[in-house]
Amino acid sequence: MADSGLFVGFGIPVRGRERQAVKVFNEAFEYYSRLQQNGEIESFEPVILEQHGGELGGFFLLRGEKDALARIRGSEEFERITVRAELIVDNLGIVGAYLGERLMSQMSVFSQQVEELT
């Protein structure tokens, strides 16, 4: 089971670039599908949020091992898709995530620090 994730969040498309946003969303979906088929990630989940007035419009959550996600994040194809997305959507953000055993480990570290500081 994956112990890490990669959160790729995005806002709404820049006005006038909606068609390009759909194109790049589909490119990212195909890329993440290939990564999953090749066993480089365990899975991914695309999410589009309901209209809510906030800055986050949706996200992809990639699940995999920490080292594999780091390699992907530094790959030319990931960087190319990221640059394309930056040109057509607002509020693009990419953040590592703790999942599974790493989540529990991180919660343990947090709890220990809370106890030491209180």
Main attributes?
globular; 4-stranded antiparallel sheet; Alpha-Beta Plaits; 4 strands; 118 residues
Task: Spell out the helices and strands N to C.
Answer: EHEEHHEH
H/I helix tally:
4
Biggest sheet descriptor:
4 strands, antiparallel
What is the CATH architecture descriptor? Answer: 2-Layer Sandwich
CATH class: Alpha Beta
Low-confidence stretches: none
Alpha carbon gap, first and last residue: 34 Å
Question: What fraction, in percent, of the residue positions are helical?
Answer: 40-55%
Question: Beta fraction of the residues?
Answer: 15-25%
Q: CATH topology, which one?
A: Alpha-Beta Plaits
How do the strands of the widest beta sheet line up side by side? 2-3-1-4
Q: What's the total number of strands?
A: 4
Topology:
Blueprint: E1 4-10, H1 18-37, E2 43-48, E3 58-64, H2 66-73, H3 76-86, E4 93-98, H4 100-117
Antiparallel strand pairs: 1-3, 1-4, 2-3
Helix pairs in contact: 1-3
Describe this structure in words.
The chain is an alpha+beta fold and 118 residues long. The chain has a single domain (4-117), classed as Alpha-Beta Plaits. Helices cover 48% and strands 22% of the residues. The protein is built from four helices and four strands; from the N terminus they run βαββααβα. It has helices at 18-37, 66-73, 76-86, 100-117; strands at residues 4-10, 43-48, 58-64, 93-98. It has a four-stranded antiparallel β-sheet. Helix 1 (18-37) runs antiparallel to helix 3. The longest helix has 20 residues, at 18-37. It is globular.
